[in-house]
Amino acid sequence: MSNELAKGNLTVEVVSERKDETGMLLASMKTMIEKLREVVADVKTASDNVASGSQQLSAGSTQMSQGTTEQAASAEEASSSLRR
């Protein structure tokens, strides 16, 4: 079990009914695993939020770029008609 945990396997289930020091150690290990699972879930959620925000920014930048291109074309068209 501890070898699996050392490899990063957080699906390990710690079960012990012992009341001695070893049992206390195993109970602490179980709590640690649960907290690590929570941390990993929180990091994944934050990562998903960053990815979503990045996609939204990218879409906004694309729209702004298209708008700027259209405005430049309109300005060029207006400038051409003034020169004639």
Give the SSE layout.
Elements: H1 2-6, H2 21-83
Question: Main traits of this protein?
Answer:
about 80 residues, about 0% strand, rod-shaped, mainly alpha, 2 helices
Structure description:
The structure is a single chain. The chain is an all-alpha fold. It has one domain. It contains two helices and no strands. The longest helix has 63 residues. The radius of gyration is 29 Å and the shape is rod-shaped. The mean pLDDT is 91.
Outline:
The protein has helices spanning 2-6, 21-83. It has 84 residues and is an all-alpha fold.
Structural class: mainly alpha
Shape: rod-shaped
Oligomer: single chain
Count up the helices: 2
Tell me how many strands there are: 0
